[in-house]
Amino acid sequence: MSKDQVYLTQSGVEKFQLELSKLKARRVEIVKIIAEAREQGDLSENAEYQTAKEEQESLDSRIEEINSMLRNYILIDSQAKDATAIIRLGSVVQLHNLTSGDKQTLTIVGTMEANPFESKISDDSPVGQILMGKIIGEEVNLPSAKGHQPYKIISIS
Prior knowledge:
This protein is an alpha/beta fold.
């Protein structure tokens, strides 16, 4: 994988496409604000103009970042199943905490989609690195706020 390539699920692609659409629409609004501010004359003391220019630069940067991702992504096929059910990108993993008895479900995603609040963890994260390549029934010690906790992998889909 080259440094520009990122791993995305189909829902991640759709999320970034939606964000890009919203950013482009906002950029059109900002261009209008800048044009109106220019018509008012002295730009050096026009706070609205300066703020709009800063927002435009920020928008342009994020638009380019998303465009780059969408040009260079590798789709994670979460529907592909291995006969051996090995944890890999796109896997949904159910874990059983052997200490507390709690169950937890995690989805392994690429770095750009990681969101711990949605139980989406990156394959590059400490937990993701431990889980990658494991199979159902294996026990792993995962880092947590309480130190390392023992878990058993109970399903992979």
